[in-house]
Amino acid sequence: MSTHLEKAQRVVVKIGSALLTDAETGKLNRTWLQALVEDVARMRARGQEMMIVSSGAIALGRRALKLAPGKLKLEESQAAAAVGQIGLAHAFQEILSAYGFSCAQILLTLEDTEERRRYLNARSTINTLLKLGAVPVINENDTVATTEIRYGDNDRLAARVASMVSADCLVLLSDVDGLYTAPPHLPGAKHLPEVAEITPEIEAMAGDAASIYSRGGMKTKIAAARIATEGGARMAIANGRSLHPLKAIEEGARCTWFAAHSTPFAARKRWISGSLKSLGTITIDNGAVKALMGGRSLLPAGVTAIEGEFGRGDAVSVHDAEGHEIARGLSAYASDDARTIMGHSSHEIEELLGYSGRAEMIHRDDLVLKKP
Asked: What distance in Å separates the CA atoms of residue 187 and residue 185, rounded to the nearest whole number?
């Protein structure tokens, strides 16, 4: 099962606060972070794309602000995050740059992964960073988030990011080495090395909100596993306390793997085809039909008519000249802009709209052909 991580092409690694900060002093655990980045560098060297979802900003910030121990008020958590995020980003930048990698900071809330236009912007930015060789370091935008801080620890955010960018592997590093049939301190609790499906029985093993697993614990990890696996990613829950935790997983360290239900590509296509309501219709000419059937994107030049009102990122139906629906996809342009550029070559877009948009009306990755 260690080969799950080695074979993955696009990997999201989530780091818990307990790993990044020292419980006694509240300082950054720099030695551990250095070892993790060495793992990331090794995986990058063999061609894997790596992203890091990091907690820790609040923990670091509360120390800098000398906030009293114990539960923080929401506004105190937000203030601590604002201060701690600077130190956290600086540490990642400094250590990653030593290995020749550019470090990119991205702050997201769960809403950014749910609202479609914000989702598309975040997805596009992360994909571009990966293409340019950077390592995105993603954190919850705690300075403006409210619900997330209460439910916290970035497990579900990491799963949403993995699904959003079509990652095929998500690793949750924390202070537990996987899922047990009962809390591991109880007699008879058995470790589960692999979970094929998240059943009610599996969810029950995570405990309720009052258990020792709550607040960034096993309950949120199971919720994350459901999101990630439905998006086509395998997910591992692993103990990250030792140095080089990713290398340890590859070498067979105990963890729990959750099986993916499909590939990320298939999951995304299924989402576009069946989960989104079409808000408009784009009619195309025969040349464009042929191009789509050949696996190409839809360019503005092949569009002959547009009906309905829709925004960038909304789902639209694609019809041929006879009115048959041949595809469904996510429009790269709002309906008004789409009408302005339809029938024109892609190189005319900037002149027509006043800005340089995408060359495609619908990119092939955002397009699903209908079966005849």
From this structure: 7
Q: What is the pTM of this model?
A: 0.79
Q: What is the pLDDT of residue 213?
A: 32
Q: What is the CATH number of domain 276-369?
A: 2.30.130.10
Question: Cα separations (Å) of 160 from 192, 230, 249, 252, 309?
Answer: 24, 10, 22, 27, 28
pLDDT digits (tens, 9 = 90+) for 27-38: 888 999 999 999
Beta strand 281-284 pairing with 315-319 = parallel
Quickly list H helices, 180-262: 200-205, 218-230, 245-250
Do the strands 49-54 and 135-140 form a parallel or antiparallel pair, or are they unpaired? parallel
Sheet with 255-258, side-by-side order of all strands: 103-108, 135-140, 49-54, 10-15, 169-174, 234-239, 255-258, 194-195
> Which numeric CATH code is attached to 3-268?
3.40.1160.10
Looking at 311-357, which runs of residues are DSSP E strands? 315-319, 325-330
Give the tens place of pLDDT for each residue, 90-112: 999 999 999 999 999 998 877 77
Domain ranges, ordered by start, for the chain: 3-268, 276-369
The string of pLDDT tens digits covering residues 330-351 is 999 999 999 999 999 999 999 9
